[in-house]
Each structure stands twice: as C-alpha cells, then as structure tokens.
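Troubleshooting log. The previous structure file for this entry was overwritten by mistake, so regenerating from the original sequence record. Sequence copied from the archived sheet and checked twice against the printout by T.R.
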Amino acid sequence: MPMAPTPARTATRAPRLPRLRRLLPLVATAVLLQLPPGLLAAPDLARAEEIVQGKCFICHGVEGESSSPVFPRLAGQNATYVARQLADYRSGKRKSSAMQPMVDDLTPADFQALGAYFASRATIGHAVADTDLAQVGRFIYLRGNPYSGVASCATCHGSDAHGTETLPRLAGQHAQYTENQLKQFNSRERNNDNAVMHAIASKLTELELRAVASYLSGLK
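Regenerated output below.
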C-alpha cells in the first residue's frame, strides 16, 4: 500500500512555485530574443544606465520621459517588449534610420538590461490637450466601434492600457507618437508586430485614431 508523503517531504516541495513565477519574465525574454542559456540571468542595470547615459537620454531622457512627441516615453514600458523592439531595430525587422545605428553595437543582454531599466522608471501623469476628444477615445478604447467593426483596444492592451510582456504599455504615451504608430500600422510601414494591428488601424477613422491617442496620453 503506497505511503502518504511525510510532512517533511511536503514542506520541501511547496516553495518552488514562487521562484518559478519570478523566473517567468526572464524566460519570456529569452524565448523572444533567442538568448543563449548563459544569458538567462538578472539584467545588468548598471550596464543599462551606462548605455542610457551614453546615447538613449538624448531622445528618451534619462528616466524614459522624452520631452518630444517624436520619441516615445519609455518609463514603465514592459521590459520584454522593449528588448524585442531593440532586437527588431538591430535586425532591420523594424525600420528606423535613427534607432538602427544606436543598437548596432549592443548585445541581446544589453537589450534585456535596457528593458528592465526602463520598466523600473516611475511613470508621470499627463493632462490631455482636449478632454472632449479624449472621452470619444475612451469609448473606442474600452468598447471599440460596433458599428464599423473596430475591436476594443482594451481586449489586448488591458483596461488600464498597461499591456503585457509581449504587448506595449500605451498609458501615458505622447498622443502624437501613438497617432503616428497607428498610421504606420495602417500603411504597413510598420510590420514587425502583430498583424492584428494592421486590420484594426485600417478601420479607424481620423477622428477615432486621434481620439484614442488623446485618451491614452492622459492615463498613468
């Protein structure tokens, strides 16, 4: 007859789950960036700060709070998403004459470190430029447009627009930057991300596009 596990055996098995949960973001990064097994380690934040101080701060600010809507705010952005975008810039999968030279000499471990660095930066609340327009955007973001077939943005990016490890945080982003990216998805100028974005962006009217971007800019 099989013996029931002793209390001592049970006690040694229980603590493993929290440790596994802590490792999941690192595993996701390794899979997306195809990192060698030896690089599955804690991000080197000191190295990331060195890179930021050397080049990233010029456009994105030391704390990821860019002052120009041409460049995205990176503070609080999801670490794995940042790392993947940097890898796509380096490979040419995502086109940018400004970003590609910046990442040419960086490694996958650097991308991982930069992702963790910007994810750890504090986010700042920003007032929207047009509150009426933002209210239209709130409706589109949370509920979509059932009359034209536009899907709810919140379905993928979350009701708080904080995204996931594989989808970007949109909350607090420059309205103009978000608008520009949606237009690039629509024109297929940007095609390194989920093809679902091409279909969604193509259905948005100019009003809806600007309204959603305005609403997102005011979230924290």
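DSSP finds eleven helices and no strands in the chain. Archived copy saved in two places this time.
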